[in-house]
Specification:
alpha/beta; 10 helices; 3-stranded parallel β-sheet; Solute-binding_3/MltF_N
């Protein structure tokens, strides 16, 4: 049994009473009233239709195969489905573009997850579940940089570090790392990445999704140094599942996400897929 499967089964067992209260008739592995063909808003009665991007990237989905359940968002999707009373065989995957998913209008999915930050602007067009993940700021470098060996914030203080100006990433350099040299400002993340490749800075700071993509796809010998702690009183971008505007499913999907957060499943999945050794450890 994989660790992901074991976690989902434990989650389902731990919240069975809560699930019954929410659905009135659901039990683990048995779709609730909305999934049996009643007019509850499911795209396909008896199924839950989940959308993600095309392609879907590591570590959110491994090998662009969400049906495998491998990767953080693929694992979260199956955990939410299980919490709602659907078996893995009842999960139907579809693909959408990022902008298409949050545009006004009807949807061909019940829920969509591809790192959508919850915002008031987007809420005008779609619904969101409660957050399943809150992103952090991450230090990225290359294997040839002195930053590649850093294991703590103290190890970064004497290095030259840059980020896109006007962003949370730039603020994190000044307020969390507090380097002895001024933070280097760039107009875009692409400019910051180019400076890193050319050795003009020792490291850059970007949000976690961008860090995984830059280090794994765009940089030669990219290195994730680690995640920066979030300053007290502040929060990172919060990712939520997207649903159609005023969807009758929003409340129950939110309840499922809340249950997975409260029983620790979301934290365990994040640790497995986003914070493991060689990925993005937390710097202290």
């Amino acid at each position: 049994m994989s660790r992901r499967t074991r976690l989902i089964r434990l989650a389902a067992a731990g919240v069975a009473v809560a699930a019954l209260a929410l659905t009135g008739c659901a039990s683990s592995g048995t779709p609730d009233a909305g999934a049996t063909g009643d007019d509850e808003g499911w795209v396909t009665p008896g199924k839950i239709t989940i959308a993600t991007g095309e392609p879907a990237y590591y570590p959110w989905v491994i090998d662009d195969d969400p049906a495998s359940g491998e990767g953080f968002e693929a694992a979260v999707a199956y955990a939410v489905a299980d919490q709602l009373g659907f078996s893995q065989d009842d999960v139907v995957w579809v693909r959408t573009g990022f902008d298409e998913a949050i545009a006004p209008g009807p949807k061909d999915f019940d829920v969509n997850l591809q790192q959508f930050s919850i915002s008031d602007e987007r809420k005008a067009s779609v619904d969101f579940s409660s957050p399943y993940y809150e992103t952090t700021q991450v230090v990225v470098t290359t294997g040839a940089s002195p930053a590649a060996d850093a294991t703590s914030i103290a190890d970064l203080k004497d290095l030259l570090i840059g980020a896109q100006t006007g962003t949370t990433s730039f603020t994190a350099i000044e307020s969390v790392i507090e380097p002895t040299q001024p933070a280097q400002a760039f107009n875009t993340n692409d400019d910051a990445k180019l400076a890193l490749e050319n050795g003009l800075v020792d490291a850059i700071v970007v949000d976690l999704p961008t860090a995984f993509y830059i280090s794994g796809v765009e940089l030669t010998d990219g290195v994730l140094v680690g995640q920066l702690p979030t300053p007290d009183g502040e929060s990172g971008d919060q990712f939520g599942l997207v649903l159609a505007k005023d969807s009758p499913l929003t409340e129950k999907v939110t309840a499922a996400v809340d249950a997975l957060r409260e029983d620790g499943t979301l934290d365990e999945l994040a640790a497995e897929w986003l914070g493991g050794e060689g990925q993005a450890p937390l710097l202290k």
